[in-house]
Amino acid sequence: MRPQRLTGWLFAGPALAVMTVFFFIPVLGGLALSLTDFDPYALADWHNLRFVGLGNYLVLLERPAFWSALGNTLYFVVAGVPLTMGLALAAALLLNHRLARWQGAFRTALFAPVVTTVVAAAVVWRYLFNTRAGMINVALQAVGLQPVDWLGNPRWAMPTLILFAAWKNFGYDMVLFLAGLQAIDPFLYEAARLDGASAPRRFWHITLPMLAPTTLIVGLLTVAGYFQLFAEPYVITEGGPLQSTVSVLYLMYDDGFKWWHLGMASAIAFLLFALIYAVSFMLLRLARKRGAA
Amino acid sequence: MVLGGLIGLAGCALFPLLWMLSVSLMPPGAADTLPPPLLPQHPTLANYRVLFAQDGMGRYVFNSLLVASVTTLVSLGLNLGAGYAFAKLHFVGRERLFQLLVGALVLPAQVTMMPLFLLLKWMGLVNTYVGVMAPMLVTVFGIFIVRQYARSLPDELLEAARIDGAGEGWIFLRVVVPLIKPIMVTLAVFTFLASWNDFMWPLIILTGQEHYTLPVALAALSREHAQDTGTMMAGALVTTLPVLVLFLVLQRHYIQGLLLGSVKG
What CATH number was assigned to the domain covering residues B55-263? Predict the structure, then answer.
């Protein structure tokens, strides 16, 4: 079997080499970088670089801009994830319903926003939600409601981004839910129907419990994705108004690639990673306790 | 009622996309009148002409096509080889390496962005096509789905070819590749779409307009210049139409990849 060992390395080697150079080394490099005061002076000359230990992390914990970015991101996650998953589940249930027709066409239509380029869709959103001439406000006024200053009011900017994200992403979760629904044994529903269980009871006692493993996966994926909010505020609100839509990644981008504080930016990246990891871990624990996975 | 719900949801999903198409076909300035019209009275390609003649959109289309195509081809080669090796070839440290790769899935891309920028700066690859492609050339997702698929190939087939004296390269190209074509299509669509739609990394690594991909160029247009609504909608359409069409043609393969990828969670 000796020649085959070499063959294995020949086939896997190039990919592993590329991955080492462009992923694994940068991960370790990032960790090291987060422990330095890398700034524009260091960018000009490496000799200006100093080791600061956990200094960046400690500075971050006392920086109001970081807490505000974290708060904005949490708002986006806590409101956006349930909305997106709720829409996705509703759409999947409708598609899977025995009275539904043209499932293929509807699935394609509902999934279309997912493959749309996020920047392009965000540009469309920016004009649709324009306060003065946007189609949304014109429609609101047509039915006798007050126009909303969607992108100019700090209270409305984040909800607008959340609506955008739900629209853009629910199709992804829907496809996963649909696969989960189709894996449920139809016999369970037959038996429940014979026992006289109503539709809401069947949903509550069969669909939801049988769907729990799918829900967990969808939840973990959606939460991790939503913590990494960036393109939406970058294009739609530019972080404003009054910094109300600056997310953690937005702060990292500004610190790192606008002000060239790459050490501080790395610390932000690792703090965000730690947070995503911790939340995912808690969700998993919670699910295990309830016996879902 | 079920049908009504579906029609309502699909309408909400498609409305922004149809509105984009409609406004992009209006004469310049027409979309900015109050109340804004829903449909163009005299459809025209004037906005597209402005976009390509004044804003240099052709260059960005070329950049995006080049970056997404080359990324797809190279990553196909690298991921196929590795996925096949992890599924069917025995080499020292295989299982442990694979566990390491799967473990790396929890690491989000942004922790690599700052050091990767410095690394590429040192290599002289900032503001180059190679710089944009670098982080997408090999993905754990790609290796993973190829491995899952290749595991189902019968070992006897490979052994028989070896006994007949076939070389490993010949076996891979003539026996393995034809059998794993479906997963190659899936991987190719996924990579092309991901590369085309990618925003944050190209925004970081591309410091000059001449290499901008479509999303970066479109974001710059919308942020830095006061643009006519019609022109911007035409730009958004040009940016997203290629991937929408690609998805429509190959959606079965795309959805399959999505389902395979989520199992890793």
Answer: 1.10.3720.10
